[in-house]
What we know:
4-stranded antiparallel beta sheet; globular; disordered C terminus
Amino acid sequence: MNAPLLSIQDLHLVFDTARGRLEALNGVSFDVRSGEIFGVVGETGCGKTVTGLSVLRLLPQTATITQGRILFKGQNLLELSEKEMSQVRGGQIAMIFQNPGSSLNPVFTVGSQMVAIIRKHFGIGKREARARAEHMLQAVGLPDVQRILKSYPHQLSGGMQQRVMIATALSCEPDLLIADEPTTALDVTIQAQILALLRDLRDRLGIAIVLITHNLGVVAKTCDRLAVLYAGRVVETGPTRVIFKNPQHPYTRGLMRAIPRPESRGKRLEAIPGSVPGNPGAIVGCAFAPRCALAFDRCRVEAPPLIEVGEDHRCACFLAETSFRRPEGGGI
């Protein structure tokens, strides 16, 4: 098998806060292959967005990566100078955010923003850069691109703003696009259009996409493979169809049960009791144990490693070794 396009290996990250040190990522590891859509899923506070920001080194000053590697095309991005990293951002790896209205500069037109970015990475003239901007706006299905180029962000709908962000991100021909909750601020119809657009762009351009989301329904329709994050750790990873058919981690199973289905209409949806810990790195043992009905004594003193449970399928749960049969003498 070819080497992955992106490989995050044992990534640890801490925040220095007024209340002390917060260990946000605690050994995150996963690979993204060329031309695939890879989902990163979990509740708010599990470390999804900060993982994406770490790849582009767009972290706040209070954040420090203390351990691990982020390999892109075999090169460790954490070892690059800021000047070298600025060429990677946008040129080779691009990112779109969940609120396009706050990502676009309100005092400049769409055209001026896109042209400036394209010229920075390609070193071309304004006319050629504008022609490229027009082409990319057309590629993401926007009509009347001349009007859009002359428009300010507030003059566009949320769906149009998000398409502008995608067009801008793709205008410099990146190999990898990181999409952080790209449909959260949009209505259901526009959400479906944006997801269809991402799949179409992957098929036509061959780029890899990391889709960060809390919505498993989005993952099911869009992603080839996925990683489930909980409390700054990957608890399960593998092909989407395999995990949906046979989830191995209790957290993944809980997320699956919480998905609304037609047959559950009028019934109360299941919910995972408790909440994501505020400082997961301070927890001894499995971070999910306080919320897990299957936890036993070992879970509270030892953190389970990711183990192979099938072809290209891994899970961080001691019970995965025994097909979720509770050990004798243990458990609640």
